[in-house]
Amino acid sequence: MKRKAKAMGATHSSGLASSQMSSAARLSASLSQGDLFSVPLEIMEEIFLNLPPQQVVCVCRLVCHQWGEVADSESLWRERCRREGYRLRDASRIPKDWRLFYFLCKKRRNLLKNPKGDQQMKNWQILENGGDNWKVEGVMVPHPNETVQKNFVTSYGMCKKSQLIDLAVEGYNPLFMDHFQPDIKVSDWCAPRWDCGSEYHICVELLNQRKKPVQTFAPETVYFEQWNDRQWTQMTHVFQNYGPGVRFIRFTHGGKDTQFWAGWYGVRITDSCVEISPAVDT
Q1: pLDDT (0 to 100) of residue 39
Q2: CATH entry 2.60.120.260 includes domain 125-281
Q3: Calpha distance 134→155 (Å, rounded)
Q4: How many other C-beta atoms are found inside a 10 Å radius of the C-beta of residue 248?
Q5: Per DSSP, what are the bridge partners of residue 237?
Q6: At what angle do helices 98-107 and 74-83 cross, to 10 degrees?
Q7: Mean pLDDT across the chain
Q8: Start-to-end C-alpha separation, the chain
Q9: Which residue has better confidence, 138 or 31?
Q10: pLDDT tens digit string along 208-247?
Q11: Confidence at residue 229, expressed as pLDDT on a 0 to 100 scale
């Protein structure tokens, strides 16, 4: 527990300004040494629940042994999860570390920028721009996610695009990634036109500091036949137990039509996602 607390604390301590520490510091200063040990644990826990979580980890737990026990307690972080609405999808799968579960839930978000094409091709690196190039259009059939109104469309030549995610820049520092190795969940949605065959490719790589692959998800090419029902298909994968050293994630996808028709009759792609997720919530 002590080692985990140190690693999690390092995730937040670098950006903790003195002004952010003031409430915990004032609380400590207002109590005499005798008072520190006379406060009931349940009262101390309630106080900690009303402080920013970074202060609890980086400041409060260092004041004394009693405060450290409360700050490290399972009950504190389980209650914090309950109050902030971070619930288990499967009640039978209990987290091994409620504090880790809390912080992963709190930081959880899509690390890809512009995943639905709402900003045209912004934030994507074009690797291949075959045929009549990439294009962004409105969806042809409703997407399961009602907020998705646009998609990227490929042409008759191979079209591929990519994003490189720097985990440290996104707030997941090397100590945290190496110690906890949290699950990394990726997903992507693709669909064909009903009147044209197409193919779809995806490759997601976990990279080390030198940008060399540590682990790769690269399934076989998906082929859609001509005259299909043009339904959306989701590709998903969860990286687990990938070992230390992961510093970047490279997400690459694309495709083309198989009829070689001028225009944009190739596979349609949208709502791509890469997220650091709690293991019990995947």
Answers
A1: 74
A2: yes
A3: 7
A4: 19
A5: 186
A6: 30
A7: 87
A8: 24
A9: 138
A10: 999 999 999 999 999 999 998 889 999 999 999 999 999 9
A11: 86
C-alpha separations of 34 from 28, 45, 131 in Å: 12, 18, 76
**CATH no. for 2-107:** 1.20.1280.50
State residue 104 phi and psi, 5-degree precision.
-65, -40
State both tokens at 171: 């707030």
DSSP for the chain, please give it: -HHHHHHHHHHHHTT--GGGGHHHHHHHHHS-HHHHHHS-HHHHHHHHHTS-HHHHHHTGGGT-HHHHHHHH-HHHHHHHHHHTT---SSTTS--S-HHHHHHHHHH----SSSTTSTTTTTTPEEEEE-TT--EEEE-SS--SSTT--EEEE--SS-EEEEEEEETTTTT--HHHHHHH--EEEEEEEEE--TTS-EEEEEEEEEE-TTS-EEEEE-PPPEEE-SS-----EEEEEEE-S--TT--EEEEEEEEEESS--SSS-S-EEEEEEEEEE-GGG-
| Lookup result for tokens 């101390």 | 44
Q: What is the pLDDT of residue 20?
A: 46
Per-residue confidence (pLDDT) for residue 63, from 0 to 100: 85
- 44 within 8 A of 70, measured Cβ to Cβ: yes
pLDDT score of 259 more than 90: yes
Is residue 115 classed exposed, middle or buried when 0-12, 13-18 and 19+ CB atoms within 10 A define those classes?
Answer: buried
Full-model pTM: 0.80
Extents of the domains making up the chain: 2-107, 125-281
